[in-house]
Predict the structure.
Amino acid sequence: MKLRVFFVTGVLALFITACSGDQEHPTETSKDRESSPSAEDSSTSNTKVNKEKSSSYENELKMSESNVKLPTAFPKREVSPSIEINKEKEYKVSYNAEAEKVGSFSGKQYASSEEAIQAIEEFSNGKKVGPFEEGAVNLGHGITGYGEGATGHQYFSWEEGNWLLSISSLTQDEMDHAGIAKKIVEYLETHMLPAPEEKGIVYIDYPQGGNEVSVDVRWQEDNMIYRLQTTRVPLDALEMTASVS
């Protein structure tokens, strides 16, 4: 009988020890996993940090605060801004992340809205294709794009509201302009660009090889022209532009 009691007591002791060990090293529960920061949470956090940085830089710029706008969202990373130009009628802020330049944003004040519109028109000159039936492509959502080739280059453009969107590359690189345009059109269905008073342009240029890209976004509001420049992919450029406030 004593031996049996001793055996039962020993088993209970081992069971209690095992339970204590489990409490010291608990396994991950579904609740733990749910409380872990997601990519969306991280992106929201970065946006908040970038907004705070933008606000602090707005106070350092000499231009009237009512005319100053800056992007607050960047491609899934926190950035470090630095002021390149700081004048009463012009400013430029560059953004870097981990020693890599993400892009730059600037604002320039003209003597009148007419001069600002003219500056946009001069930059847009030659970047619009069509409209003509040959070369027309259905981009979805009721939008039609037009493509053409000339002197070793191929061009593609379409319009959305007051925005002209234009793509350029070398013919030999055989870039899929229509495919790129369809992705952009789909993206803009859920992301709104700033509203130009008269005109705005997104110019996407692929240098030789097609492995790199330069995106130049400009739009006019009254006598101001705002401009975003980046070598990030077009959707990243649009993400930054859509966040400008």
About this structure: The CA atoms of residues 115 and 150 lie 31 Å apart. The longest helix spans residues 2-24. The longest strand covers residues 100-109.
